[in-house]
Amino acid sequence: MITPASHNLIFLVTGKSGRQHGYEDHWSDDGSTFFYFGEGQAGDMRFIKANAALRNHSAKGEDVHLFEEVSSKDGYLRYKGQFICTGYEFVDAPDTGHNMRKAILFELVPLEAFDAPPNGPDGSADVLDEEVLPEELAALRVRALAGSSECRTPVERRLLSRMRSRAVRLYVLLRAAGKCEGCGATAPFVTQKGNPYLEPHHIRRLTDGGPDHPRWVAGLCPNCHRRAHYSHDADEYNRILANLVLSKEGDHE
Q1: The domain spanning residue 39 has which CATH number?
Q2: Residue 2 belongs to a domain
Q3: In degrees, to the nearest 5, what angle opens at C-alpha 122 toward C-alphas 223 and 199?
């Protein structure tokens, strides 16, 4: 695992060379989940450093990218894509000294499995609908932050993560209350169902897909959304957005 201090990124490398340390990374039978062993060559693994970073990456707004060894001798890697950590479990596995220990087995799902349906004009955003409008804002936030402690299987954790992903986006749109959280202007138009149109933007993420934390998602008008991604001052603008959202979410921390 590589966690650059100056970037919101986590790089994971998988390959045969890890087997000497008891790492048997593998795909699920249906190919939907990649099981990735945590960091630590001897003794029980703990949630420190890179292991903690991977477990908490959604809440921290960090992107996870997986690479596969093509040749351990030459150091060549093949990019496998961006992933979301949907859960983990402790399993029995040997360490470098062939002693059995408790190892962390992370469950990683490709980002495209979480992509929002193309409800918005640019195909990137959820929109408010009649299903969620009657809900209290606080109740939707609870759903957005729902944990996976009661989920017993990787499939259940994966499904819960997808539900949380949508709940986060919808919560943010409700939190915005019809006004762009960037420029403060009223939503540029209303949808066919009469709801203000805004787009969820992941402040610290390279993409707008996948589950996240309400602390790192802003409800923006299309113009501000594109500014946050493509303008010359995008980095500074995202820092401004982070402070604006913190002013709203700070009371919940």
Answers
A1: 2.30.280.10
A2: no
A3: 55
